[in-house]
Amino acid sequence: MRNALKKTLQLITLPLLLPFLVSNQRSVIFSDVRRWSNIYNLTNQNDLNNLLYLLLQKEFRSLYYYRIHQGNLFGVIIATPLSFIFKKEENLYIWCKNIGSGLFIQHGFSTVISAKSVGDNCWINQQVTVGHNGVGNSPTIGNNVAIRAGAKVIGDIKIGDNVIIGANAVVVKDIPPNCVVVGVPAYIIKRDGIKVYEKLT
């Protein structure tokens, strides 16, 4: 019964395959699909079926439209009218020149992703702000970075690979790789798996 319902729901998003089929961003979109599928344990279907299922979610559609708009003009032309029918998450804003594959956006409500770049396999929760400090200088986010609910990452700073930014933390300075930070202003509580207390410099 559940599988039948899932297949029926997938038919709803079939029109959204059109921009995908003509886009030159298919590879990175499939990378996103595999990441989201692993997180949601959608392991019993192929990538295309999982894409159709994930397109039921507004957060994924927001990322999908971002990918399509990073690609060729044909995909953009087809996706634009579809976006009025299959709407993205209204309170999720993505302004970024480059986002690596496998970005996962959990909930996505009231979230701003405005970075110079975001690395591969990052995880961003709801009510997160990644943005500039008022003069156009935005962060650079590394690979495998997790930014938890309510966190703020502001200014021309670099977030290293394998960093976890705790809920509601405020980050305005560089974070080295392999660190966990929390607090306002953020400070390091774990580096390379070892508990520490270090201020960001």
Automatic annotation (TrEMBL):
| InterPro entries referenced in this protein's UniProt entry, alphabetically | Hexapep, LbH_SAT, Trimer_LpxA-like_sf
Source organism, top-level taxon: Bacteria
The record ties this protein, via Pfam families, to: Hexapep (PF00132)
Q: Which GO terms describe its molecular function?
A: acyltransferase activity; structural constituent of carboxysome shell
SUPFAM superfamilies tied to this protein? Trimeric LpxA-like enzymes (SSF51161)
What Gene3D superfamilies does the entry give? Hexapeptide repeat proteins (2.160.10.10)
Record key words, sorted: Acyltransferase, Transferase
Give a GO cellular-component term: carboxysome
Return the similarity comment: Belongs to the transferase hexapeptide repeat family.
Protein name, as recorded? Serine acetyltransferase
Q: Which organism is it from?
A: Aliterella atlantica CENA595
